[in-house]
Amino acid sequence: MTPEFAQTIVQQVEQLGLSNATLAQLRQTYPEVHFTYCMDDDITHPQPVMKCQGFNLYLVGGEHCLALTQDYAAASGLVLAEVIEDS
Questions:
Q1: Environment class of residue 12 by beta-carbon count within 10 Å: exposed (0-12), middle (13-18) or buried (19+)?
Q2: How many CB atoms lie within 10 A of CB 25?
Q3: CB 47 within 8 A of CB 5
Q4: Contact assessment for residue 36 and residue 21, using Cβ atoms and an 8 Å cutoff
Q5: Element (H, E) at 81
Q6: Which of the chain's termini has less CB crowding within 10 Å, N or C?
Q7: CB-based contacts of 79: which residues, under 8 Å, 6+ apart?
Q8: Are 40 and 79 a contacting pair, CB within 8 Å?
Q9: Is residue 87 part of a domain?
Q10: In a domain, 31, yes or no
C-alpha cells in the first residue's frame, strides 16, 4: 500500500460517491486489496490517514489479526468510513 494508491482510491470514491456499489466496483478492480465500508463514529482510534469530504480513510493490516494502522507498508486494505455531519 502506498499513499499514492490511497489517494487514487479517494479520488475514485469522491467521483462515484461512497456506497456499497462503489465498494463492489473497487473490490472488482483491485481484488488484492481488502475494502471495508462503515460509519466513522464506529471507529474510536486511531486517527484517519486521510480526511475527505464525507468520509475518512483508514489503513488496515496485520499478520494474524487485522488492525488499523498508520503504516502504509504494513497495510493490506482500506476502511472507508462515512462521516455524517451533525445538524
A1: middle
A2: 15
A3: no
A4: no
A5: strand 75-82
A6: C
A7: 35, 36, 37, 38, 43, 57, 58, 59, 60, 68
A8: no
A9: no
A10: yes
- Residue-wise pLDDT tens for the chain (87 aa)? 999 999 999 999 999 999 999 999 999 999 999 999 999 999 988 899 999 999 999 999 987 788 999 999 999 999 999 998 776
Residue 29 domain flag:
yes
Q: Indicate the number of domains in the chain.
A: 1
C-alpha to C-alpha distance for 25 and 75, rounded to whole angstroms:
20
**Global confidence as pTM:** 0.91
- CA dist 75 and 59 (Å) reads 6
Residue 43's domain comprises: 3-82
In a domain, 36, yes or no: yes
